Queue: 2 jobs
Job 1
Amino acid sequence: MNKIIVVDFGGQYTQLIARRVREAHVYCEIVPFDAAMDRLTSEDVRGYILAGGPNSVNDPGVPMCDPALLDLGKPVLGICYGAQLMAKLLGGIVDKPETGEYGGVDVVYDERCALFAGLNPNSTVWMSHNDAIVKMPQGFVSAAHTPHCPIAAMAREDQQLYALQFHPEVQHTKLGFDILKKFLYDICHCAEEWIIGDLAGGMIASLKAEIGDRRVLSALSGGVDSAVASVLVHKAIGDNLTCIFVDHGMLRKNEAERVLQVYRDEFGMNLIFVDAKERFLSKLKGVTDPEEKRKIIGTEFIRVFEEEAAKIGSPEILVQGTIYPDVIESGVGHANTIKSHHNVGGLPENMAFTKIVEPLRGLFKDEVRALGVALGIPASQVWRQPFPGPGLAVRILGEITPYKLKIVQDSDAILREEIAAAGLERDIWQYFTVLPNVRSVGVMGDGRTYDELVAIRAVTSSDAMTVDFARIPYEILAKISSRIIAEVDHVNRVVYDVTSKPPGTIEWE
Ligand SMILES: Nc1ncnc2c1ncn2[C@@H]1O[C@H](COP(=O)(O)OP(=O)(O)OP(=O)(O)O)[C@@H](O)[C@H]1O
Ligand SMILES: O=c1[nH]c(=O)c2[nH+]cn([C@@H]3O[C@H](COP(=O)(O)O)[C@@H](O)[C@H]3O)c2[nH]1
Ligand SMILES: NC(=O)CC[C@H](N)C(=O)O
Ligand SMILES: [Mg+2]
């Protein structure tokens, strides 16, 4: 299959570029800027995109790619930092102009350039740069300009080298997706062959070959990723798959019953259910630090998997629902650890399993969902909101106690009922309640109360990397608030979280 390589320089939008390429039905991979050339130059590579980044190409020690990449005779598209790097590596000059550009800007495209051919030449683009290309390398021409940026795009078409100062991957660049598609189809001559529904058969066949007749244990949470991973493996190896679902006591209200009903009763999967409530809660007793909670839960999950595996003849393979963003965040780039996700950073070193199989580790969430639909998993499962492995533990600030768990479970159930009743389930990426460990004074039934505060968190997103708070209509919020206070014991106040990500994160811990 054709592929595009997206070179990561630590920018905010690298993943977004990759998603856009995939949305155009072209396969792509993100590689770090310092990857060895032989990882980048296989025959199926049709072109390269050099992504953005926070550094200035003129500073010492900043991320650079191998200049040989520009000399392979394959098309290269530089975006922002990637554009500036292309200019610099080929002998142009990058400098700090008097004004940078941030946000939406008017642009004029030169239609003679293959990237803009046939597009409306007067449009708007989204900019975010302090530096700019002030002198182009030899043989390049300017192909777009804005009021403050005479070289908003440059090209050397005889060598298929293109550079954009603006970001075609963000929605605010009006014709951005068209420009990317021109690069992919007209310049790199990629075929539209990355079609998720068509991949299921090949994935099942290669799982069959990879696993053979060995036995496998799959950690099934009832979430989208592990459900799709488990169904794929089930189709590949049938009864050699055993699934394991752990109730760690921090699941949503009625979640355990629902998972068992869908996957054991309706799907007929071989599913072990472990009631480990006491075990997890006693390990977490007195623990208040968020990272410590996450690590305890991550380790305890694996220990439970191992103990149960030993009871069924010790399958050596563990299946996990890890997806591409988990892999990128833990491997590529040079990002800070914000929180340890239990299935990636949180895995203990010594494990009884000799092999981990992660059939979805190359896919984005929207692709996992499309695959789930193609595999016949019901829409009610495929479109569920993500639920973190550590569960309500990261939604109860401070120590976890049965009293607090009940408040979060009951208030969350009301929120979910009302969001469903309002028909907003598909519009909101995640929605849940949080117990921040705060009490306040209120008046109920003419008497004073001094009780718990519940926060509602609801966000819109397409990949959980950046989010905005959901604009739930006030009337619906009012109904949720009054139901929570009336129906959940010990709650006398409800607040709405209006923080985006960044600077917040989705979960509170
Ligand atoms: N309660 C659980 N029992 C067994 N395995 C679990 C449980 N919770 C999480 N896991 C494992 O951890 C992995 C990562 O969890 P994560 O929440 O990212 O994915 P998911 O639950 O499958 O999907 P979603 O993101 O939609 O919630 C899961 O794919 C699953 O393998
Ligand atoms: O399986 C998981 N194990 C974890 O440890 C974990 N922590 C956060 N999340 C989910 O990841 C997404 C991003 O969350 P944050 O904005 O809170 O970092 C959101 O979808 C969160 O619900 C987790 N999922
Ligand atoms: N978004 C980017 O890639 C920015 C590139 C570079 N850091 C600049 O400020 O110009
Ligand atoms: Mg989950």
Job 2
Amino acid sequence: MSPVHARAVTAVAPAKINLHLGVGDLRADGYHDLLTVYRAVDLWEEVTVALAEPGGDGVRGETGARGRDSGSDDDDDEITVTVSGPGAGQVPADRTNLAARAVELLRSEAGSDARIAIHIRKGVPVAGGMAGGSADAAAALVATDRLLGLGLGRAALEERAARLGSDVPFCVRGGTALGTGRGEELATLLHARVEQHVVVALADGGLSTPVVFAELDRLRAERTDLPRAGGTESLVQALAGQDPAVVADLLVNDMEPAALSLMPALRRTLRAGEEAGALHGMVSGSGPTCLFFCGDREHAIRVAAEISETGVAREVRITHGPVGGARIIDGPGAGPGAAPGSGLRSGPDHPTGK
Ligand SMILES: C[C@@](CO)(OP(=O)(O)O)[C@H](O)COP(=O)(O)OP(=O)(O)OC[C@H]1O[C@@H](n2ccc(N)nc2=O)[C@H](O)[C@@H]1O
Ligand SMILES: Nc1ncnc2c1ncn2[C@@H]1O[C@H](COP(=O)(O)OP(=O)(O)O)[C@@H](O)[C@H]1O
């Protein structure tokens, strides 16, 4: 147990993109085996966990609907959730929230009866295939570990993260990593240093991850010739080089045909990015966000402006990666050395754009 205790701790965790997303067949447990190359990018979720005053929220001066644990009286709520930022209304503000599940996991493990108020500031598109909910869970784990003075190491936090969702361990770790199993088994790609500048085109509405996986199974049953991503060796090698164009040629996403089948309008978005001169365009994870990989930041600014003009996207953002994983930004011990993934960070990245 660490001697450090606090009344409130704030942590951030990054969005992910999949540079390679190979999906195997449906397993008996309802998941699919994955072979994926994850990369953390500079879009962040920010989560504050605070010891709540009896009868109060614990987080002061924030707006947003107060979550309520259905089936219990407000005054009895031990964990409350508020959410602000773009898309906040689509995020559950009750105990099904992944951040609340993360807090509850560590709280019960610690045998604590502390009342904890969670506030989430969204910076990652909701239901966009960029792991916003998983980043909430990752940031909540790191923050609660500090709030309750548990002193769990990074490996222990990633083990808890895997219980919350397949993408959560990567949001704790950040950087660039190979993911296997259902995506929760990670091997950091330490040499994957090539920086990427990416245009992120947000769609109207979201896509449900399990629905997209099911659509892929359906398409594969119908069309046995549907291409499947191969190995990751060439991509891993290219990521250790210096040329984003070489990397761009090797990007692949097995889920893209399923996302396009469910949301055919995304074809127009992909075409717009291609016509704007991106090195490569593809659907992000299960979609519907589309990613356009560019040579450098200036190129990304030009591509983003052109896509914006076509009106195919609800919103266009520019980001870059790799960046580090979940880390504490406010509370005791905050700073570059405080994050579980600090040894893996690629540079002095700080969350921006909020
Ligand atoms: C597809 C990916 C690619 O990185 O991300 P998104 O694009 O949605 O962000 C991930 O595999 C999403 O991971 P995550 O969102 O954590 O999924 P989970 O909560 O673990 O699972 C939700 C549901 O998705 C399906 N699922 C998930 C992971 C996996 N390897 N196989 C699956 O079939 C299952 O139906 C599962 O019940
Ligand atoms: N913190 C959260 N806890 C629980 N569910 C969330 C959270 N954030 C988003 N969601 C919900 O989970 C679903 C997936 O959201 P998200 O993680 O943002 O996207 P994706 O899985 O496509 O990366 C959405 O229906 C959204 O309402």
